[in-house]
Amino acid sequence: MYQYIIGCDNGTTGKYCVIDLNGQILDFQPVPIFNHPGWSKPKKVKKINKEGVEETKIKQTTFNFIDIVKLKDLWSKIPDITKTICYLERPAVNYQARWAMQTSLSAFGAWQAVIYVLRSLNIPYEIIDSRQWQTVLIPQALGKNNKEYVRKQRELGKRNDLLKKAADELVHKLFPQITKKDCDSICIAECFRRVQVHNRNLTNI
To answer: Helix H segments across 156-183?
Structure first.
């Protein structure tokens, strides 16, 4: 039986949460990252400054990468790593839209980096879809109780905003000490903490 659960929201802008079976949040913060130059060659860009003089500047594309050294150090401090499991959200990869290529590559790279850290620490993990925890914790935001409202939000392009808001509101209610936004990782951890508790109770019957 696992005593500690890591909920990890994939991506270089994602966060992670460590929670114990009693529902106490031990850690909640952004996944550590570092900035690195991209693979494209630097380009010279000419611009006119405020004085009206033309200047040439070097423009270099940069990317954020998961800092696996820092992440490994953070997760190695979990009280009992041998009784820890991680639930990692599947990356949102778009294979069709060309404009989404960079985002998709970043998401997949972050996914690989986190899996590397988990394997190096011998922490078992499961890959999950966002709908798995959303169905349990925020079904109203999925439209099960308010389909017309959700339809309008989707038409306005605010579908993800609705889900994010519902997740944050739930976390702020369950864990008043948490005041930050983007709480998906806490929802992931809390959802599967309930699963662990449920399984433990069944075992004790």
So the answer is: 159-174
